[in-house]
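COURSE: Structural Biology Practicum
ASSIGNMENT: Worksheet 4, Part C
STUDENT ID: 0417
INSTRUCTIONS: Below are two proteins. For each, the amino acid sequence is given first, followed by its structure token string. Answer the questions at the end about the second protein only.

PROTEIN I
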Amino acid sequence: MMHPADGPRFDQLDRGEYERMLELECHLRELRTGYRRACPELALPGEPRPEYLPGIPMMARLAIKAAELDMAESSVRRVLKDYEDRGLLALIDNRRLTA
């Protein structure tokens, strides 16, 4: 069980926030690996998209993903780093937690 000081819990999320968080995770996995499910064995139809093929530099991938998400590249970098450091909990938008 998490201590309140550890941050938000998944059971505090409403369905919309939970789905938003999972969708963002898919975007981050695509950014890193080219696959929304993170590996070729679980590839969705059409993956990897040309923008995320192996060999495409990470800076180019960041620019493309930032445009897709309508976010600044620096924000995408920050979210990706937080996700790499803290996992799925890093993607929770604390402003949207239910009481």
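PROTEIN II
(use this one for the questions)
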Amino acid sequence: MEIIFSNRAYLAIITETHEKIKVETGGVFLGCYENGIWYVVETIDPGPKSIFQAAYFEYDQKYTAHLINKIARLYESKLTLIGLWHRHPGSFDQFSGTDDGTNSDYAKLNPNGAVSVLINVDPKFRITPYHVAWPLRYSRIRHKVGDELIPEHLMRLKNPDMPLKHINEYSNRAFSMKKPTPNAKIGFGNLLEGIKSQFDTIPYRVASDDLMCEDAEQCKNFLIDSLIEDIEYLSEKRGLSLSVEHNSPFMGLSHKGIDGVITKVAFAYIATRRQIMFSYGDVKYLYEPGLFARLLADYVPPEDSFKAGFKRMLGFGKES
């Protein structure tokens, strides 16, 4: 097992250490675990409200959570939080009791554990990487630096065409004013029923503290950013007039069908697990941006499928 830093990630560690040379500092890693190798693509700085002291350091967690989500969305691959680093005073390159608790929390987030890196300046810059398993167990691992050592697909940025399209069309978009398309008679609930077999259920019991979000406005903005692609799709392509409600820590989408039946779906950001979940029909599922648009892209409701087949049987709809 080893850890490989991109040039940018490694430079970020060095510059942060240099800027806070008289105190402890640190950061978190954004990357991926593949085939026994931890790839660190980005290093996120600890944030302006961190506590920096000669022998103590504490992250600005609201800031890092915000920046992780922002930076991760720039890459094609699904980069995730894979670990952290911090500087220790002098030559002390072992973890403290406080570090053990933090490392344990990170190791629980991923079945492969996490990586935790210590930096010392004694008197030269020195890096000591560890793999952290759960239950808590440390093992030192070697490290390398270089973009050429990281698979190309992990370094690839997203194509800007899609967000540019949304930006250019945004001024002409008014969801509530759009005329319903013929698809509007297919209610939100009917569409969800057609694809729910493909949803990933939450593989754990959700505790009340899992849904706690200290910064309600930040979570609200994060959920809106995450849902916008599906809201656009359901409105424009499926002709649904959706209502959006926010009641911290939940974001709700609801739709009233032509039969008067109201379908409600509630979304929440599980801060402790850095995941989005949604609740539909008393079952909780994992959510990722664009999930509904992706699953519904090729979905034809049974009624439409029957009518299309019936027309073909009667000779309608044939190419001339």
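ANSWER KEY EXCERPT:
Q1: The chain has two domains: 2-155, 161-306.
Q2: The two ends are 63 Å apart (CA to CA).
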